[in-house]
Design brief:
The chain is of the alpha+beta class. About 65% of the residues lie in helices and about 15% in strands. It has helices at about 1-45, 50-60, 70-85, 110-145, 150-170, 195-210, 220-230, and strands spanning about 85-90, 95, 100-105, 175-180, 185-195. The chain has a three-stranded antiparallel β-sheet, with helices on both faces. Strands 1-2 form a two-stranded antiparallel ribbon. Strand 1 and strand 2 (about 95) form a beta hairpin. It is globular. The termini are far apart. The model is unreliable at about 15-25 (pLDDT under 50).
């Protein structure tokens, strides 16, 4: 009897794991289709009138693209499209899908300037996310006595915020990359990068639950959803 019960429990566990895997695979396939549609939209987009105007002004100021790169107008148009791309949040309401961040850097080489500018954009967004998540935690503590979020949770988050947030920002898409040379023969690089909020939210939820040792915590998930609905 005991053996039969054990077998039944194992079967239930396997069935649950299989269902979760199938659901995860289905969600990944859906997300890939969405990204393919977005990429196709960017590929087929023709430079907008506004983008051409900006390109003219930037070129006049000495800005250019690297050899073989997309034209400035094309890059600006793609940035505009990503900025307008919408998705449904957890409540089913429309919200912007991408967070766009711009940064500049001056370095001895183009590649070094690119790397520094990308790092600057990431640091800026990481600091903003840390502030927003901490503030959302404090609000939940004040407004919901039954919440699993406590002062200890907030303290632990601040201690581990860098690793939690940085690990969630590893996947970025550079939508604009231009440069010009300075009088000192250095490279002044200007970039704009896009962060996919849907992917960012999923990574942030996993990292928060793991680092704060609160696996499957709905309160933490709610905090991330709340932050992603806000302005960046």
């Amino acid at each position: 009897m005991k053996m039969k019960k054990t077998i039944i429990m194992m079967a239930i566990a396997i069935a649950t794991a299989t269902a979760a895997f199938a659901q995860g695979a289905k969600e990944l396939a859906k997300q890939q289709r969405e990204l393919n549609e977005i990429n196709m939209k960017l590929l087929n987009a023709k430079p907008s009138k506004d983008a051409k105007k900006q390109e003219k002004e930037l070129k006049k100021a000495g800005w250019m693209v690297s050899a073989g790169g997309k034209t400035i107008a094309k890059q600006i148009t793609e940035a505009q499209l990503l900025g307008e791309e919408l998705m449904a949040d957890e409540a089913g309401n429309p919200t912007k899908r991408y967070i766009l961040r711009s940064a500049q850097s001056v370095a001895g080489t183009y590649n070094a300037g690119m790397a520094t500018a990308r790092a600057n954009a990431q640091v800026e967004l990481a600091a903003m996310l840390e502030t927003k998540v901490a503030a959302a935690m404090e609000t939940k503590i004040d407004n919901q006595q039954t919440s699993s979020i406590s002062a200890n949770t907030v303290e632990k988050f601040h201690e581990r915020a860098k690793s939690i947030v940085d690990a969630a920002l590893t996947n970025t898409y550079t939508v604009l990359s231009i440069y010009r040379t300075t009088q000192q023969n250095n490279f002044e690089v200007q970039i704009q990068v896009a962060f996919d909020k849907k992917e960012l939210a999923a990574r942030l939820k996993r990292n928060l639950q793991k680092q704060l040792e609160q696996e499957g915590d709905d309160d933490l998930n709610d905090i991330v959803d709340q932050v992603m609905r806000g302005e960046f």
